Request: fold
Amino acid sequence: MLGSVEQSSGAARTIVEFCRFAREKGLSAGVQETLDALNAAAALGVRNSDEMKFGLRSILCSSKDSWDLFEECFETFWRESAPRLPRRAKAPPKELASPVDGRSPTSLMSTGSGDDASSEKDGAQAVTGASARERLGQADFSTLSHSDLATLEQISLRLFKQMSRRLARRRRIATSRGQVDLRRTIHRNISRGGDPMNLRYRERKPRPHRLVTLLDISGSMSSYSLFLVKFLYALQKHFRRVDTFLFSTGLVEITSLFRAQRLQDALDALSQQPAGWSGGTDIGGSLRAFNHIHRRKLRSSDTLFVILSDGWDTGDPGVLATELYAVKRRVRRLIWLNPLLGLKDYEPIASGMSAALPHVDVFAPAHNLDSLLALEKHL
Amino acid sequence: MVLEVSRRAVEVTTMGTFQPLPSGAGNQGVDAIVSGFERLGYITDRSLATAVYLVTKLHKPILVEGHAGLGKTEVAKVLASFLGTRLIRLQCYEGLDVNSAVYEWNYQKQLLAIKIEEGSDKTVEEKERHIFSPEFLLERPLLQSILVEDASPVLLIDEIDRADEAFEAFLLELLSDYQITIPEMGTIHAKHVPYVVLTSNRSRDLGDALKRRCLYQWIDYPTLEKEMRIVRTRLPRIEEDLARQVVGYVQAVRQLSLSKPPGVAETLDCAEALLTLGVPKLNQEAIEQTLGCISKSVEDGAKIRTAGVERFLAG
Reply:
């Protein structure tokens, strides 16, 4: 198929170079994609640069992000090499790439195959991941350096996913048998002449509880909020229904932001929310607002209610206790996660916290990765 | 029974609208798609047309992403009628399994057959072969798509992001070899490799493996001019002025950061509603009457109202 490109091998060369350039820029332009690009060029004819661009874009992109990245990539490449195109394309890759990212030609060459390069990179990440996991698992979120935070973020995303998957695979003892699975039943009974003597059943996959979460985003929690949000995001996947709220001085529902979007979209949308990130705290008032508007979301049989807060409350502890009790009566389990619990000498004596404690089923720390992962047993 | 691969020439002359794509000259091929799609009532741009052209040339699946109501699904439908082939559609949903996507045995019929043959002197093997023959096989969309006899069909896998990851992995297998294995019957190869169109609303990230196998196309909100052409094409009865007002109004609403910004489908709904109501000119009352076409939630409706209707009427 490449034969038809041969007469314009200069153009073919340019395309290969462009693919290499795109790979450097972070698009997934491996060997297969490069071949596809050449085939596409042959199918499209190389004359019209617009079509060429659209064609290459549909091959080299695989998401909206890369779609946007491509635009810039294409412009840069073709602007830099425009005089040399299309016939006398002798543009050596080093000249193209080196002014952009300062890599030496040898490092360029060594990324020969996109597949190999990326798998190597993944491997390397996994190795640092293992040792960093040991080191960072115990570290308090608020004391981490910037680079550690980034590493921890990666690790935690992976572990949160694993946890979510483990939870999803849990089975419960069935009290009643499900529907008869006709397919297996028939197959099983052919040797008996087809009389369905030995029945096979199938059962609905066990569906987990509904989860209602209130996340404190007041100033005292700010160093933890980001991780807790990600933790919540990973969790919600396996619950049948998740309602998520943020509170500081007021209550904001963010369920819909979380639901139908990818994590990055969710975080972006979240940062657009006008809910005073890092303001004061009124836990009691927020809970009252919750009870007032969203009480019907609680069902005592299967609802898990999680509050993530340090308990530094500027409101009336009496209100907090009353409202929390109202919640408590309507849920199956009430979990309070407190990052401060990770501190050695912490005693829950803040007036809000001590008022709340009698109504809490599980009171657990949430200051580092390990403590979050340990929550699995309560879910 | 293994269905053998047939390499018969594609016979499509009887199918009507098929136009042989000129090979090599990509420009003309893309032009043919733009004009052909337009004739079928689908206004497209060269970006999408180029991608579709490559689908027909390279025989790779295409993944179409974009916001709701921008005609992702329509791409497959129009492609099918443009090529004059069958459209086979698989709507994905949570919990979609192989039984409803690929094939299923007709159990009731099998049970009956077993009963009927009870008295006969066939051996167990013969009976088994009989009840697992094609006669008892219910073909679901994916199997249908590789069994089509005459020409490559268009296989639309709609909202792939709703299906779970296990199904995605299964699909990967199908899309690389275009064959399906039924344990009781053997492996069935595609007679004609289908043109595959996948759509996604990006409610979750798709696997890298699947994405790498596909061409990719992002469909964005149309420009004012393009949307005008769409409205004029779909609703030839509408007055130019009214169309311009409606399109301007919807384009302004899209800037409001609603939870569900209206797509082209909503524009068309709104324009059609105005036609039906016999409103000659978009005004405050007309916007109020057709608000349900544009906003699909109470909050969004309130946002549009508070944004001030006058703003939309200006353009």
About this structure: The first strand of chain B starts at residue 62 and ends at 66. The CA atoms of residues 21 and 29 of chain B lie 6 Å apart.
